[in-house]
Amino acid sequence: MIITIVGGGSTFTPGIVKSIALRQKELEVEEVRLFDIDEDRQYKVSLVVDWILKDMKSPIRLTVTTDKRTAYENSSFIFAQMRVGKYAMREKDEKIPLRHGCVGQETCGCGGLAYGLRTLFPMIQVIDDVEKYAAPDHWILNYSNPAAVVSEACRALRPHARIINICDMPIAILEMVGRCLDIPNFTDFDVNYFGLNHFGWFTDITYQGRDLKAEITEYVMKNKTLLPPDVLEKLKEHDRVGERHLNASWIHTWNNVYKVLQSNPEYLPNTYLQYYLLSKDVVEESNPEYTRANEVMDSREKDLFEGIDHYIKTGEVTAKAFYHGAHGNYIADLAMALKNDTKKKFIVIVQNNGAIENIAPDAMVEVPAYIGKNGPEVICQGPIDDYYKGLMEQQLASEKLLVAGGIEGSYEKVWKAFSMNKTVPSATVAKAILDEMIEANKEFWPELR
């Protein structure tokens, strides 16, 4: 049993490997392979991974490679978490739109579309390489962002690939709900949810007969935030708490849940809806000179690589050297459900085919599914109201146009994708952003004619 992590140099890799090691017996995993095109970065991250496995006295063997065949041969699970262009390009994704008065964000708006064009073909290359070398019954579990664009590209170009696209944001929201309501067992919540990736709504959240959606809605309306009481207390003295989802930009995000709920209290929104429904507010709250990319580079990136340097010098791994939590647990639990046919419920990105009754069958939607050895068994969510349908179809059209434009090398279709995005006020602004993005992404994008 072999698990390969694509993007082995990611700051998330140590946490994911720890999640795998904690489930070693259930997964029966014998070897973890790290694969990255950045050999130096991956080597440094692998030092922490090696320390984790030894510290846990895990029998898992670690392989670190930049060779595709070595990475994929006979692998059963491939965890993909590529960041094409790294944080240098993420910074441009965020800052270029802000210069034009539009949302600057990693996966949403023009920044997300730009990132999608960079990731589209590298993801297809991973699928082809895995198909060539991995075990015939392999599964690719993909965290690579922007998941909505990546999943549409996979549907269009490799419709039969054994890939499940996922996002940890829904589980991160449920974790925050649990903290707000003082219920630690957030992974046991029963939920219903519909939407697109980073563009969806929780319609039901229950736990042991309790209607948590009603409780959390009341909590948010009272406290004007989805931040839990312990964090609110800490924030009276400090402007950040030091957790992954609690840096300055995330504090704005959790507070904006209140604003979104004010206008539509029917369902609990995915936090990323702020970028579409509150785009003016988000731009006004943003610092165009210091975005989320800079936050991450100054926190998670800095902590990990400073921790690695400290480990090399002293042999000690500091507590904040790596992040472990819902991100790693979610993907490892999904692998466990596939391997052991548990039929556990997860929120995943799948081709619609009636899951949302009045949305196009070829749409890549994010909905709950029971996960077993044959993949997702989708739980249909029925028809949705015009408000949600209209929002989703506009966003879906933007993403589909982008993928089609990337595949065909069509400037016109990519421009239309930027123009249709709800974060952009006009076609002329879309063109100005696109033209600047083309220059910034010369090394990564397909040629647009």
TrEMBL record:
Cofactor(s) required, per the database record: NAD(+)
Gene3D superfamilies in alphabetical order: Lactate dehydrogenase/glycoside hydrolase, family 4, C-terminal, NAD(P)-binding Rossmann-like Domain
Residues under site feature: Increases basicity of active site Tyr: E106
Pfam families registered for this protein in UniProt: Glyco_hydro_4 (PF02056), Glyco_hydro_4C (PF11975)
Binding positions for Mn(2+) per the UniProt entry: C167, H198
A GO MF label: metal ion binding
Assigned keywords, A-Z: Cobalt, Glycosidase, Hydrolase, Iron, Manganese, Metal-binding, NAD, Nickel
Subunit organization: Homotetramer.
Residues noted as binding substrate in the record, renumbered to the chain: R90, N145, R292
Domain of life: Bacteria
Native source organism of the sequence: Hungatella effluvii
Family according to the record: Belongs to the glycosyl hydrolase 4 family.
Cofactor note: Binds 1 NAD(+) per subunit.
Active site: D168, Y272
Protein name: Maltose-6'-phosphate glucosidase
GO biological process: carbohydrate metabolic process
SUPFAM superfamilies: LDH C-terminal domain-like, NAD(P)-binding Rossmann-fold domains
Stretches assigned to the Glycosyl hydrolase family 4 C-terminal domain: 193-424
